[in-house]
Backbone:
């Protein structure tokens, strides 16, 4: 298990992209076989994703607006 | 030697000659039941780690570059191709229809956030406050406060979900000409997040999609709309497109 994340800490855009990636790869997509590996070794990916989501998205928006006024808020899936 | 599976595609969508998967071996397109499956030989199931997740996505994204693909969820390992042949054969039509549906399209992720929503108070904290005068002693006041706080939190969540669904519908109307599919996705979220969406958009319509989002933002200046992508269509599996609901839970 990972250490609990500090939810007051601002989330970076890289982290947001990572959260979007993890939520898709682990939680979505076609399931062909019933026995899907979501067990975790070293890093609790699901917990990491949840913790990052729970951190304010608004913080990311504020940082983005401050950094680049008027620039689109699209994140890079490549993370 | 088993197989790790990445995505369902058409048999003619083959990977480049030197594409390596998460195990470092060559990714191949296997033809099974008339469909193409991107797979890599792998001795045993992979463990979930960030690098593996990134590798899975990297291969799925490469498949999507070459043609329509239905990404598989992470972690699908089979002892041999025969283990999925029956499932694919039985639902071949649904997969073919789904591939037609996603051809030339990508997924855009959207999250509508209301930064002004007051955070819900934790019921336990509310109860502790109600019993502050009684030191550590249990009191009827604490129990009542706890239950009321639980109800209040649930009421706010329902209200938030309803508002999120209304906004999702409005956004779909604004973007209707460029949407090939849209759905609300279950997703972990903070208290300020109203709804999380996945849109299926043709690549050539991405600019018009972005313009529509811009119009929506102007209409709702108090809301934040965070987008991500474009992604391979992870959120548009055959079951979710209404083509074969039995696939949603992986049951053959």
Residues:
């Amino acid at each position: 298990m990972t250490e609990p994340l500090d939810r007051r800490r601002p989330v970076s855009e890289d982290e947001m992209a990572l959260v979007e990636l993890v939520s898709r790869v682990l939680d979505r997509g076609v399931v062909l076989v019933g026995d899907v590996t979501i067990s975790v070794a070293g890093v609790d990916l699901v917990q990491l994703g949840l913790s990052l989501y729970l951190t304010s998205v608004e913080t990311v928006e504020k940082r983005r607006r401050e950094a680049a006024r008027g620039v689109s808020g699209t994140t890079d899936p490549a993370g | 030697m088993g197989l790790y599976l990445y995505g369902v595609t058409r048999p003619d969508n083959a990977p480049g000659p030197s594409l390596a998967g998460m195990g470092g071996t060559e990714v191949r397109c296997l033809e099974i039941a008339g469909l193409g499956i991107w797979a890599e030989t792998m001795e045993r199931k992979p463990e979930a780690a960030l690098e593996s997740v990134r590798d899975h996505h990297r291969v799925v994204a490469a498949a999507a570059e070459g043609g329509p693909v239905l990404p598989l969820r992470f972690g699908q390992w089979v002892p041999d191709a025969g283990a999925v042949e029956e499932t694919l054969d039985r639902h071949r039509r649904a997969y073919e229809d789904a591939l037609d549906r996603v051809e030339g399209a990508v997924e855009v992720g959207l999250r509508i956030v209301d930064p002004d929503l007051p955070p819900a108070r934790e019921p336990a904290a509310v109860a502790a406050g109600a019993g502050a005068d009684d030191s550590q002693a249990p009191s009827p006041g604490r129990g009542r406060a706890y239950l009321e706080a639980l109800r209040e939190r649930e009421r706010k969540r329902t209200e938030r979900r309803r508002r999120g669904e209304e906004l999702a519908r409005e956004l779909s109307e604004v973007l209707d000409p460029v949407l090939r599919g849209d759905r609300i996705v279950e997703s972990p979220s903070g208290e300020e997040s109203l709804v999380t969406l996945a849109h299926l958009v043709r690549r050539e319509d991405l600019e018009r999609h972005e313009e529509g989002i811009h119009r929506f933002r102007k209409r709702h200046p108090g809301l934040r709309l965070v987008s991500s992508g474009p992604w391979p269509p992870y959120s548009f599996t055959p079951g979710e497109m209404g083509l074969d609901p039995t696939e949603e839970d992986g049951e053959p």
About this structure: Residues 247-252 of chain B have pLDDT under 50 and may be disordered. The helical segments of chain B are 50-66, 82-90, 92-102, 123-130, 140-175, 206-219. The two ends of chain B are 24 Å apart (CA to CA). The first strand of chain B starts at residue 2 and ends at 9.
